[in-house]
Design a protein that fits this description.
Radius of gyration of chain B: 13 Å
Number of helices of chain A: 0
Number of helices of chain B: 0
Structural class of chain B: mainly beta
Strand content of chain B: over 45%
Number of strands of chain B: 11
Oligomer: heterodimer
Strand content of chain A: over 45%
Largest sheet of chain B: 7 strands, mixed
Shape of chain A: globular
Order of helices and strands of chain A: EEEEEEEEEEE
Structural class of chain A: mainly beta
Order of helices and strands of chain B: EEEEEEEEEEE
Chain lengths: 115, 113
């Protein structure tokens, strides 16, 4: 019940295209859903996060869409750039409960943006 | 403003040995969490320290232990190393009041031979 399932495992997009990564969760106690970007040799860096009281959050070229009834959320990267090439992880936690600060991560998506 | 600092960056150990990894949290952060990231996988939560005590723990054996000092820095100790312990070990710091600003270090790459 603690799993977060992420797809696809890898994604190749042309420069200027839209990258879409999907995640599904099982634990209905999760109430905070961040997305992380990780470059080789670096730790994950927070991109954008959402709480389940909203269905969409946009920050620059990055948008999270959230479907509470389906227990799914997705990351959309608009106008994808070669510099966006990295591994992306979705994560989830119960920010208001006893598992505060314990992030459960998806398996990751390797994004390659071709120039 | 320094972020999360981890040391060493790389480490090679022999099976059966013990290892200690270190983490200095971001300024203003009082909570430290440790994660194990195997190659090609997402990070897996090991445990979290707050006020020098282990506050919660993931599904890792007792060979994994930790400590937090009064200055909020933390150590991860792994005893009786196994080949399967080879991974990137990440430290993340945060405040006890909000998850916003939850910040990861660049990690320690541990190789067990």
């Amino acid at each position: 019940q603690q799993q977060v399932k992420q797809s696809p495992q890898s994604l190749i997009v042309q420069k200027g295209g839209i990258s879409i990564i999907n995640c599904a969760y099982e634990n209905t106690a999760f109430d905070y859903f961040p997305w992380y970007q990780q470059f080789p040799g670096k730790g994950p860096a927070l991109l954008i996060a959402i709480r389940p009281d909203v269905s969409e959050k946009k920050e620059g070229r990055f948008t999270i869409s959230f479907n509470k009834s389906a227990k799914q959320f997705s990351l959309h990267i608009m106008d994808s750039q070669p510099g966006d090439s990295a591994t992306y992880f979705c994560a989830a936690t119960n920010a208001g409960g006893t598992s505060y600060g314990k992030l459960t991560f998806g398996q990751g998506t390797i994004l390659t943006v071709h120039p | 403003d320094a972020g999360v600092t981890q040391s060493p960056t790389h480490l090679i150990k022999t099976r059966g040995q013990q290892v200690t990894l270190r983490c200095s949290p971001k300024s203003g952060h009082d909570t430290v969490s440790w994660y194990q990231q195997a190659l090609g996988q997402g990070p897996q939560f090991i445990f979290q320290y707050y006020e020098e005590e282990e506050r919660q723990r993931g599904n890792f054996p007792d060979r994994f232990s930790g400590h937090q000092y009064p200055n909020y820095s933390s150590e991860l100790n792994v005893n009786a190393l196994l080949l399967g312990d080879s991974a990137l070990y990440l430290c993340a710091s945060s405040t006890s009041r909000t998850l916003y600003g939850y910040t990861f270090g660049s990690g320690t790459r541990l190789t067990v031979v």
